[in-house]
Amino acid sequence: MATSAIDRELAPAAFLQLAGHPLRWRLLVELARSDRTVRELTGLVDEPQNLVSYHLGKLRDGRLVTGRRSSADRRDAYYTVDLARLGEMLSATGGAVHPGLRLVAPTPRVAPTPRDDPAGVAARVLFLCTGNSARSQMAEALAVARSGGRVEAFSAGSRPKPLHPNAVRVMGEEHGIDLTGRRSKHLGEFAEERFDRVISLCDRVREVCPDFPGEPETLHWSIADPAAGQPDGDDEASYPAFRQTAAELATRVGFLLAALTPEEEP
Hints:
- There is one protein chain.
- With about 270 residues, the protein is of the alpha/beta class.
- It folds into two domains: about 10-100, Winged helix-like DNA-binding domain superfamily/Winged helix DNA-binding domain (Arc Repressor Mutant, subunit A, Orthogonal Bundle); about 120-260, Response regulator (Rossmann fold).
- The chain contains nine helices and seven strands; from the N terminus they run ααβααββαβαβαβαβα.
- The strands form two sheets. Strands 5-4-6-7 form a four-stranded parallel β-sheet. It has a three-stranded antiparallel β-sheet with strand order 1-3-2.
- Helix 6 (about 135-145) links the parallel strand 4 (about 125-130) and strand 5.
- Helix 7 (about 165-175) crosses helix 9 (about 235-260).
- The protein is globular.
């Protein structure tokens, strides 16, 4: 059958129809900034909850948005936009019109900068999770390493516990970053410090996140605890979850750095 070529031609048009709806576009823009619940999205776009839920369902069917039950309140769900897929679809749509319109996603282009040079720091970011034993530690390390020193990143937890061995292992084996010897910290250690962004990585810590000086932009990435549900001491069983979490964090941090450290004009 010759339907495959036809399907490829229709795919960009279907994407434009899906993402181009005014309300769905507003939802994508809000979710590109931070993961949100339906209740939060309803307030942000000033539309009824049933209408917001309907259009979220359409975006989920198109695999542009995913949903996950909150670990803090199972009655809530957090929605996340798949920025990588959205970028691919935007690029394919432009290329379907003309090869010269195919978009290329920007990547942060930064040179290593001494950490003691304030003029070279683009932003200060604090990552938070409950234990500061995995997710926030990995995000901190990725932001520092991949920004070449342009971003000062820190991490903390509401109930710190020792760094998980699998966090050390996955960052070393998969991302070439050594977390050996890092300590977990309570978020109170940073209570008087100023940040440009404070990013919560688990739903529980979002509920108890304090205000920080200077009113930094607060974002939420709803990421499941990779150690949750695994038998104590069975690190091998939970390692695949750590690999998945590290990969998701690497993608999210990449998009964060694209916003914090844009490429300079030639």
